[in-house]
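4.2 Preliminary Data

To establish feasibility before requesting continued support, the project team ran the inverse folding procedure on a target of 166 residues. The structure was first converted into the token representation described in Section 3, and no sequence information of any kind was made available to the design step. The complete token record follows.
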């Protein structure tokens, strides 16, 4: 196994799972999502892991999960929105085809609203989105081999743009 065909990164709510599944269908390969792997392995939700153990512990779990998925999957792989925060995790992506699905802050607020299932957005979503994007944008750009803007586009249009960018 030579690693995933495509890795999708980008902020939560940008559509990594929807686009990832469409992309996998179009490419005739399997789809995998490290958030799902973590929930299955841990037997609890991501929100519960954040509450029980905090973000740092979650990032350590996530790093292991990304490493396993990269070694064991050759289709489309979507990473959690914050996976890029960890330098080791970013290092694991070197040499892979990494598509960054981007969106602007207003689009993010509109799409995710007050989604309390996402612990990082529980209060004041606009301010938190701004801070989150400011902290992460350059990390996504650093590892991406292609950037696909999703603002105002349907999942099908984003999928086509991602295919065109491969
Ligand atoms: C996170 C994004 C989430 C999930 C966790 C933390 C983040 O993944 O890993 O809630 O830090 O941006 P999605 O991007 O799949 O929602």
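Position-by-position output of the design step:
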């Amino acid at each position: 196994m030579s690693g995933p065909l495509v890795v999708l990164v980008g902020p939560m709510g940008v559509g990594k799972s929807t686009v990832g599944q469409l992309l996998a269908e179009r490419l005739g390969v399997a789809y995998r999502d490290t958030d799902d792997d973590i929930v299955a392995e841990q037997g609890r939700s991501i929100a519960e892991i954040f509450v029980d153990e905090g973000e740092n512990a979650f990032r350590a779990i996530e790093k292991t999960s990304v490493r396993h998925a990269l070694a064991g999957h050759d289709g489309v792989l979507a990473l959690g929105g914050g996976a890029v925060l960890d330098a080791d995790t970013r290092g694991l992506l070197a040499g892979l085809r990494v598509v960054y699905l981007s969106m602007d802050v207003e689009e993010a607020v509109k799409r995710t609203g007050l989604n309390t299932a996402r612990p990082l957005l529980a209060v004041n979503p606009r301010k938190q989105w701004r801070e989150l994007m400011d902290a992460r944008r350059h990390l996504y750009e650093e590892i991406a081999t292609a950037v696909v803007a999703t603002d105002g586009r349907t999942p099908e249009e984003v999928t086509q743009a991602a295919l065109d960018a491969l």
